[in-house]
Amino acid sequence: MSVDEDSRWLEWVKKQFETIAGDDKEIDIDEFKTALKVKESFFAERFFALFDSDGSGSISLDELLKALNLLIHGDETDKLRFLFQVYDVDGVKCCVCFVPTGSGSIDPDELRTVLKSCLQESAISLPEEKLDDLTLVLFESADKDSSGSITFEELKAELENFPEVMENLTISAANWLKPPDQEQKKSQTPRYLTRAYWQNNSRKLLFLCGYVLLNLMLFVAAMLYHRKGGGWFMLAKGCGQCLNFNCTFVMVLMLRRCLTWLRATWVVRILPLDQNILLHQIVGYAILFFTLVHTAAHVINFAQKSQSGGFSLWEYLLTTRPGIGWVKGTASLTGVILQLLICLMVFCSSTFVRRSGHFEVFYWTHLSYIWVWILLIIHCANFWKWFVVPGFVFLLEKIVGIAVSRIGGLYIVEVNLLPSKVTHLVIRRPQFFQFKPGDYIYINIPVIAKYEWHPFTISSAPEQPDTMWLHVRSMGQWTNRLYEYFRQPESQAVCPKRLATSLRKRHQEKRQQVSAKSGENHRFCNIKCYVDGPYGTPTRQIFASEHAVLIGAGIGITPFASILQSIMYRMRKHTYPNCSSTGCENVKDSDMRLRKVDFIWINRDQKSFEWFVSLLTKLEMEQADGEPEGQFLEMHMYMTSALSKNDMKAIGLQMALDLLAKKEEKDSITGLRTRTQPGRPKWEKVFQKLSEENKGKVHVFYCGAPALAKVIKAQCEHFGFNFYKENF
Asked: Where, by residue number, does the polypeptide cross the bilayer (predicted)?
């Protein structure tokens, strides 16, 4: 650190100390635990004992500064010695003077105690036997002289085998002790002005430029046509003409069947079809803007007219007496109602409404579009001319959707309740129902809600015959009702027992394909449902890519589960051309250009991996053994609740997990060959590695939280990768 940085750090620590310490200007053990935000008291007590150099039972500012100076400014040996003192449970040493008062070595029981606390800090649950295995594998590796204990020199030698740990050895939970990074405050070029952003978003930006230009032309043309009516009247008419266009165009962007068909044509290379939801939202906000300006201009115009006599302002706005409008003078009344409906629809479409467990509010208010179109036809004499063709196509799509959803009865034949309130539905698949990997459907389950339709990605492969899968995360009212319905005892649910026996026999051979628990979380049933779709998504382009990177966050794995299964069938067909097993006969790999697939799955907790662990195990078994860089499919698992490898509270655990994974050739957390990495991915390093593989043009497909999408998209723009995000 420079002198300025050191001075700033010192001031920051003093400020933080004052906020944590009590009136006595000392930090006691409870205040220390609160400040470090540790889950397990073991590490808080060990750190506190080492920070409290005089053994007074509290930490003064001077003691804190000395200890932090060692951890932040100290060299590698100082930090390692502090780590050793933490692990030497039967001894308490002063972290400043390093005077030993304990055994000076770590025995197996001490190491086991530390690793158990590491597991609790990282929210990892393992059997006691597995904890013993982790303890022994790390102890045997570190105890070079087989003396039955680990000395400081032996621990240091063992850590040298893990260079990534030594890069930034720190206590990550003590971020409150670090001053804000001033580099983040430096002015940077906005990403929207960078060359990479314009190159990676060229289709969308050109389309938006054309959209803005068209609106501008319509606005100017309408104003000039009505120039005799005065300035406010011209403004109202200009916005009105833009509303004629936008209120029909917003519908065109939601013609899902037409867009799905266009995705299979050359049009997808010109128009941003994969951005239809974003464009729909932009047009929606444009409608709100034009509506507000249109209404305000008319109100001002009416106010001016009311001053010259005839009718009052309220008569202009709320009655039919002035005779404005082509249907019995109802233009003003319909305009007021339209203004209220459009404001309500836009408000209930906002993210905080849709993502806060109130999807039904968005769903039902959005159905007001029917009344909006009816009122627009009454309100404006020319709107029907804009509406007739798109409206006919929209109506045709709805009729086809209703017809398809009612043809060939669909039934939920199997249900599995998975961790984190995920409901796995197995639906009997009609022969005529064809879809592609990553497609989604709208499903209606009358026993849950008679009139509600909700979109979910199909998580099974098209090559899988007879059934298709949906994985539904409980995040709103409807999804919670679905989970609770199947969680109740079978006798209370509407699952006819007379069919249970035959269904069990029919699906007995398929039970291995379903990643679900048995017993109370697994049942067979025969529940009627209706499906509308399938509809295409950006992932339809995946097999036309050369190097595909699939990134799923949490339940965002569902479209990639379908894709990975399809890849498995195609790999099987490629390896065994005469394969006649189930699913092989349905494989069509004429459009397969893939040379490499990287699959990245990020989960918060350990249990979430259980959703698709059986599928991932099969994928690993399908691949021929070889070096990772030679594999067609590479998997990367991340668990965000687990502390990173360079955190002092997790170093021993992560070293032990690495050693045991090499010994047993499988990960202790998931059971896969792929090692689960702790913490969040370091995206810059991940994308740098991908760019160096030279497997062709990289296409990144993402499904998950919007906040992470922004981070990944920014990295894609930096490295020149194509980015696709699941939207429906």
From this structure: 205-226, 232-256, 277-303, 323-349, 361-387
